[in-house]
Amino acid sequence: MLVVLVSLTFFFGALILAFGLRIQQQGTWERFQTPSILWLGTGLLLLSSWTLEAARRALRRALVVIYRGRLLATIVLAVLFLCVQAVSARDLIAQGVAAAANPHGSAFYLFMGIHGAHLTGGIAWIGYLRSHSKRLFKGTETDLRHHRRTLSAAALYWHFMGALWVVLYYFLRRWTAG
User: Would you state the pLDDT for residue 28?
Assistant: First the structure.
């Protein structure tokens, strides 16, 4: 998991650097308003990290029913975040922000799209954990330990995606404010 997170850090860092340099070099560009609903999306994603941690606490206590409910809450919050992203993209399109003509617009679309794809992978992983948690009702302590380890790796990825979004959102807002 560490190798994946380090490679994602370098990948997104390179994207931020590339767009930052491109934006800095371009003298004039089309200004637009950052969709304010992105604040809601950021809050939803941060809340999903909290519910995932609550799920981990429940699993440590072997409270499988509560664990499953909190995983479901995490998934719902993440899907709502993706819906907010879609609404934000629609707002940008309504403002006439084109990806090809405006480096700020292309940064928005690219960052939201790539982050959304990685988040979708995280949703699938959490969904996998939830579906396989049914086995824990009849499983052994070894099954529970294995599930906890897999959940810990998924949680690390999930929290990384949340922190990454905060960084991306900072740069997106900074670039449009300037």
Answer: 58
Pair of tokens at residue 45: 């994603």
Tokens of 34: 């950052």
The CA distance from 135 to 53, in Å, is 21
Query: Which residue's structure tokens are 């998924």?
Result: 154
Chunked mean pLDDT (size 10), the chain, 178 residues: 84 79 64 83 96 96 94 98 94 77 74 91 96 84 89 95 91 74
The secondary structure of the chain in percent helix, strand, coil, rounded to multiples of 5, reads: 85, 0, 15
Q: Is residue 23 part of a domain?
A: no
State the sign of the Cα–Cα–Cα–Cα dihedral 18, 19, 22, 25: negative
Buried b (16+ CB within 10 A) or exposed e, 60-78: eeeebeebbbbbebbbebb
Find the CATH number of the domain harbouring 144. 1.20.120.80
Q: What is the pTM of this model?
A: 0.86
Residue located via tokens 């084109």: 98
How many folded domains does the chain comprise? 1
